[in-house]
Amino acid sequence: MPVRKSLTVLYRSCWIAFFVVLVAGMHYDFSWLWSWLPLGLLMVTRLLANRARPEGAGGGADGADGRADFGVRSAVEVEAPVTGRWRALNSPADRVPSHGTRAYGQAYAIDIVAEPDGRPRPSFGWWPVVRRSGAFPAFGAPVVAPADATVVRVADGQRDHLSRNSFPALPYLLVEGMCRDLAGARRLVGNHVILDLGAGVYALYAHLRRGSAVVREGERVRAGDELARCGNSGNSSEPHVHFQLMDDADPDVARGIPFDWRGIGVPANDEVFTAPGVLNRPGTG
């Protein structure tokens, strides 16, 4: 098992041990310091996991593991994963890692929300505390292949939950995210599709709509082919598309790879962009 994979498993085990000791402390008499020992260990393992294969590790063109050193590699140019008018959030154009962590290959990940003309997106505020996914224009929007690729993973059985885009829902979102992290990458990304673009580059689409995948594992797709629909599954505050490039099909061990959307670039936080292109629906090409 790769070092980073082992550290990730140990990290999750430490979280479970922390909660077990915490609950046991309510029934048995022992020092409260034992409760924080697993917590300290999990912090160390997470730090080691993030540093086990950092972007830019190794020398020359290849890293220590023999794979390309994507920390010094130029961005991979691909088509945008959507069509129409969207707004960027948590963009690597503003900071790297874009989501505050390099875990799960998301150093250069980006979130985008649909903002079509004539249909405003519900704003973040105090009320309502939650909304149904259908209240957001991104919900149900198609996501498309950014290049000719092979489908290596499809998962679309998780439910689309209510939104968490309000101040009262933030504490719940944080606790929920922690619990999903314990359950592993699958629960964090929710329904997802992973594509092999070739040359050691993989594309991940997360938080997809339940039952919306129109491709199967092993299938070849062309740039612009519909893959699934935007949803609100996994660790998601509202329906949106999470897109990232990485160097492995397993997010637990993957490193992030910078991307560049052809004709768009990398939109900055809060930047509105329009992705051109013709959507190739299943059976039309």
How would you characterize the overall build of this protein?
With 285 residues, the chain is of the alpha+beta class. It has 2 domains: 3-52; 76-275, Distorted Sandwich (Glucose Permease (Domain IIA)), CATH 2.70.70.10. The protein has helices at residues 3-24, 33-52, 170-183, 185-189, and strands spanning 76-78, 84-89, 110-114, 142-144, 149-155, 192-198, 201-206, 220-221, 226-229, 241-246, 256-257, 259-261, 272-275. Helix 1 runs antiparallel to helix 2 (33-52). The radius of gyration is 20 Å and the shape is globular. The chain starts with a helix and ends in a 10-residue tail after the last strand. 38% of the residues are buried. Residues 54-72 have low confidence and may be disordered.
Let me know the number of strands: 13
Q: Ranges with pLDDT <50 over ≥5 residues?
A: 54-72
Strand content: 15-25%
Our measurement of the CA-to-CA distance between the termini, rounded to an integer number of angstroms, reads 40 Å
Count of separate DSSP helical elements? 4
What count of domains describes the coordinates?
2
* Outline: globular
The largest sheet, given as strand count, sense and whether it forms a barrel, is:
9 strands, antiparallel
Based on CA atoms alone, the radius of gyration comes out at 20 Å
Structural class: alpha+beta
Mean pLDDT: 80
Q: Examine the coordinates and then state which fold CATH places here, giving the name of the CATH topology of the largest domain.
A: Glucose Permease (Domain IIA)
| CATH level-1 class of the largest domain | Mainly Beta
Oligomer: single chain
The SSE order reads: HHEEEEEHHEEEEEEEE
Supply the CATH architecture of the largest domain: Distorted Sandwich
CATH superfamily of the largest domain: Glucose Permease (Domain IIA)
**Percentage of residues in helical conformation:** 10-25%
